[in-house]
Structure formats: C-alpha cells, structure tokens
Amino acid sequence: MGAEPPARAEPLPPVPARPLSHAQPPAPSRTRGRWGERPAPAPPRGPGRSLALAWAPDDPYTTMEDYEQSIQDMVRQLKNSSEPGDTKCQVNLRLWRSNRRSLSPWAYSINHDATRIPADIPEARCLCTGCINPFTMQEDRTMASIPIYSRLPVRRLLCQGSGDTGQKRSTKKKCPKKYQTVMETIAVGCTCIF
Question: Which residue stretches does the UniProt record annotate as biased composition, category Low complexity (predicted)?
Fold first, then answer.
C-alpha cells in the first residue's frame, strides 16, 4: 500500500468586490508605467476634496462641530477627573493614560480663551526638566523633556469695524459675533531628547 500524493487544491475563483452603500465609486485603476516611473496620484474623491482629505470619509465626525464637541468632552473629563493634580516628575505604571507612563511625563491644563471656539482646549505641560531613566525610574537631567506641538483648527472672534480710524468706539456698541477659522499651536504631549 503506497501513500497517495496529497490532493491538489484548486485555486478559488476571485470574489467580486461589492461596493459599500456609503462608499465612493472606485477610483480609476493606476497602471504601472515603465520601470522607474511613478504612477500618477489618484484624483481626489468627491467634489471639492483635496488630496490631503481624500482619505477622510463623508461621515459626520469630520465636521467642525463634532471636532469641537470632542475637545469639550476632553475638557469635561479633565475637570471631573478624580486623579490628584500631580505635578511630580515621576512615572506611574499603574495608570493607563500614556501621559503618566511616558519617559517624559506630562499633565494637562486647560488653555482658556474667551475669543475662540472652543474656548477651552486641553494643553500639555511637561512635568520633568529632564527625562525618566527607564532603568532607575529617576529623572535624568542629561536629557531634556520638551513639548510636542500641533496646530489645531479653532474659530477666532473677529470684530468688524475695529480698525484704527482715529475715532473712539462707543462703549455701548457691541462687536458683531463673526468668527474665522484659524490654526492655533497647542502643546499636545511631551517627548525626550538628548
């Protein structure tokens, strides 16, 4: 009785792709050019979409209002936090939040500005001058903790007619509430450098 060779599995036929109900029509296929040539970038999907936002779905969470709401949720969590306002340069491995487990730990404070929306934004503040040595778990000042900055979109209150015309504005006349979206630099965390 000889051993029979294993049966060969036949390749499965390709499964046709089914578009999702909310998916964009498929982008035109990019064919490979000659060796060394790069294919042309895929065109943006949807009307008025730039290449930078071509990946973003058309779901509601990409709206400015939802973005502002998520920031306000973070501010609310900070205000309601039961953790002590610890300002010590130390790592706490029992906490799940990355800002306290980092080798360059940071705490959050609330950056308040009444002339912008959102008025309150959580901002990181480094707790160490140096960095935590992972072997001794003590601060090592041969390294430095520095903030990581990010530019966040905010809406700034603008006053029309507030230009210098040489006339004093009446204290009774109020500024009409008109906002402009601008990018603001905010510290979002800390990192360690040599």
Answer: 1-10
Question: What are the structure tokens assigned to 181, written together?
Answer: 């979206």
Q: What is the pLDDT of residues 106-145, one digit of tens each?
A: 999 999 999 899 999 999 999 999 999 999 999 999 999 9
Three-state secondary structure readout of 12-60: CCCCCCCCCCCCCCCCCCCCCCCCCCCCCCCCCCCCCCCHHHCCCCCCH
- Burial class (CB within 10 angstroms; exposed 0-12, middle 13-18, buried 19+) of 89: middle
What does the DSSP 8-state code read for residue 106?
Answer: E
In the chain, the domains with their CATH numbers are: 63-78+86-161+176-193 (2.10.90.10)
Q: What is the rounded CA–CA span in Å between residue 147 and residue 124? A: 7
Helices (H) and strands (E) in the chain, counts: 2, 7
Q: How many CB atoms lie within 10 A of CB 131?
A: 25
| CA–CA separation, 132 and 89 (whole Å) | 8
pLDDT, residue 154, reads 93
